[in-house]
Design brief:
92 residues, mainly alpha, 434 Repressor (Amino-terminal Domain), 5 helices, globular
Length: 92
Amino acid sequence: MPKSIHRPEYAALCALLREKRLEAGLQQTEVSARLKRRQPFVSDVERGVRRLDLIELQDLAEVYEVDLVELIREYLQRTAPQSGSRKKKQPK
């Protein structure tokens, strides 16, 4: 299995975070200032070149004023397999 930052699901997460930033009306520089991080951190997150841990994801959700659980739900909806295309697991 490829590393998570190379999977389509990670690209979906990065796109979702960018959308949430834009919906919040924030520039990357504003987000980085609120996080007390350098601006390239936000850019790297949105471009998918930097992995996030759960704490960083929570921090971003707070800056964007979105509920972390709702953010994760939206991510799961976007990445859920279409009905009928789910692969069945093979028994071990």
